[in-house]
Specification:
Number of helices: 3
Distance between the termini: 46 Å
Structural class: alpha/beta
Number of strands: 7
CATH class of the largest domain: Alpha Beta
Radius of gyration: 18 Å
CATH topology of the largest domain: GMP Synthetase, Chain A, domain 3
CATH architecture of the largest domain: 2-Layer Sandwich
Largest sheet: 4 strands, mixed
């Protein structure tokens, strides 16, 4: 068994509506509470970070699965949305919706591409980590574009 360690340093100089920062090997950004939650909205925030982790994990997993299956993709783009519920002052990360747009080269790969799009959501490490706590929804669009 191999374990991988990822490290992050965080600095929060003040109170609730101040601005802090986080730094990891390939990441440096300011952080604060988003404007939607009555914060200053500077830099990123935990809600975007979780959405970003889920989206990047999913799209990388899907790309690897398509490659292993020898499906030639023309493009792979995605929009993702997070829904955070606020009830009685309690914030709950309710749902993440991924909307990948996959353009492949060969029509014979349509069914397999759809299966892999669904499998990638269940296989992604971040999806598995939040499963049971955050609803995950997938709305893929798959099309064929023959080589010009």
């Amino acid at each position: 068994m191999a374990e991988h360690y990822f490290h992050l340093k965080a600095n929060w100089p003040g109170n609730r509506n101040d601005v802090g920062e986080i730094q990891a090997k390939q990441l440096y950004t300011k952080i604060s509470i988003p404007k939607e939650m009555d914060g200053p909205g500077i830099g990123t925030n935990p809600d975007e970070m979780l959405l970003g982790a889920a989206a990047t994990c999913y799209i990388i997993t899907l790309a690897a699965m398509l490659e292993r299956s020898k499906i030639v993709k023309r493009s792979l783009d995605m929009d993702s949305t997070a829904i955070v519920d606020v009830t009685n002052g309690v914030f709950t990360y309710k749902k993440i919706i991924h909307r990948p747009t996959i353009v492949i080269e060969n029509e014979k790969d349509l069914v397999m591409t759809r299966k892999l799009a669904e499998k990638a959501e269940k296989s992604c490490m971040i999806s598995r980590a939040i499963q049971g706590n955050v609803e995950l929804q997938l709305e893929p669009t798959i099309s064929v574009r023959l080589e010009k």
